[in-house]
Amino acid sequence: MSRRRTVKPWNQRLAPYLFIAPNMLIFGVFIIYPALNGFVVSAYDSNNGRTFRPVGTDNYGNLFSDAEFWTAARATAVFVFAFVVLCTAGAIGLALLLNQRIRGRAFFRAVFFLPVLLSPVVVGLLWSWILERRAGALNSVLGADIPWLIDGKLALGVAVFVGVWTHVGFYTLITMAGLQGIDGSYYEAARLDGATAWQRFRFVTWPLLRPTTLVVVVLGLIAGFQAFDFIYTLTGGGPLGATTLMVQYIYEHAFRSPIRYGLAAAGSVVLFVTIFALTMLNFLYARRREAV
Amino acid sequence: MRRAPSTGKVLTYAGLIALTLLFLAPVVWTALSSFKDRTELAARPPTLFPQSFAVENYTEALSRFDFTVYLRNSLVVTVSATVLTLAINAMAAYALAKYNFRGRDLLFLVTLGTIMIPLQIILIPLQQVASQLGMTNSLLGMIIPPAATPTGVFLLRQYMLTIPDELVEAARIDGAGELRIFWRLILPLCRPALAVVTIFSVIWRWNDFLWPLVIAQSQDLYTLPVALAQFNSEEVVPFNYILAMSVVSMLPVIIVFLLTQRHIVKGIAQTGLR
User: Fold this and answer.
1) pTM for the full predicted model
2) What is the crossing angle of helices B67-98 and B104-113, to 10°?
3) Which of B27, B77, B124 to mutate to test the interface with A (most CBs of A within 10 A)?
């Protein structure tokens, strides 16, 4: 941008504001205002969704003393951690595979992207059907009797797997774009120095891919904390709440009788603060690594 | 160069084929099973290929349930929300990429920040806003609130930054108005990025579940995913119909993807998503 101080005609001064206005209006009304209002709602209690009265921080007190909240929080923590790690590692692995000179690259790329296209509701249905204990295809093929969706720990693992299965194709695409941005001369230099494939990955790909990895980790974190729809049709949150994550906990308190808006809003605030803090930590970490 | 395939190559292909099976088999099996009748679906062990080839699953699902209504709702929401998203995201991106105005950096920061506020997190206050605006139980309520996407603005802005400013200046000297420059010059140049935003918007809107579920109180406003999930949890609909509906719900996005897929990789590679 030039720093000339020319006086622009009025239409050029006004135009950007008019261009940005519709988007900002919707952001304001449907994202920013509700986000701020969430803090307000969390300070009120309601009588099954009607007649609100201020209760200060009571909702947070009730939230933190609710055993179901802690079950959901723990399940969410386990889910998000495993989801982010596996998605990031999977995306890098798949992107490296697809970045080689192979036949049918477009085909493989489309295959891994296929689950991204599917409705999470359908994804949940599909896997619940495959993993069904008695009539499911997997146990039939394995000739086993594994209670995939009936055992709590196993079910949470299945939820992680299905989540990764659904999302990893998208992160692979981003990672492939990142890989293509790395200058080929680095690899040639490394090869001339006699670096092995592992050394080329460790000392060229890995550091130069870091900005892409950061994007994948942050998007993965946000997606992980949002997970709900495919779990809803996969396990319904069961068995015994083992796969009820925070979004489902919030949804059930907000829209299922007895409606407890305040408690649900308090849960949303906790979730928002968690996502915000973790995202910021990631960016701070990335910045510090750059400074070193 | 012609030589025997190295072990590395063999391993690569073996890995790719195994992974392809993992990603493709569940979907193919679902598609095949949607042609099985109810006895065959309940068979143990399950069959791979349909013996019965029950096309009735499709025809009856269409006629016995308000399936066409859900299909139409999904279509209306997806198409109009995507058009709206493209229009307002592109306009906002243009302002952020090609104008120097007071408050620009702040507005860009606000845009980026909203990525951290997914709809799931603001569900309750958002539902309250929608209900105050009389948007609950209407298709409009499904279309408008999620239309402004931070990802779309970001992708389009990054792409527009690669368009030289001189081009815009030249158009101005030729006497083109601001709107005309945007419409006739910028938008055509952004086609790859617009394709990426289109496909993502179609995927998100078509498959969206939680927000339509919250907004649609009456059954005649259900979109496909909402209807599928409700039927599945209530078990009022035989599973062979649910499967047929699932397959129909997969098809449109898969077709859109196949039509636009070469733009997607190129678009992402050229925009700032890295």
Assistant:
1) 0.89
2) 150
3) B124
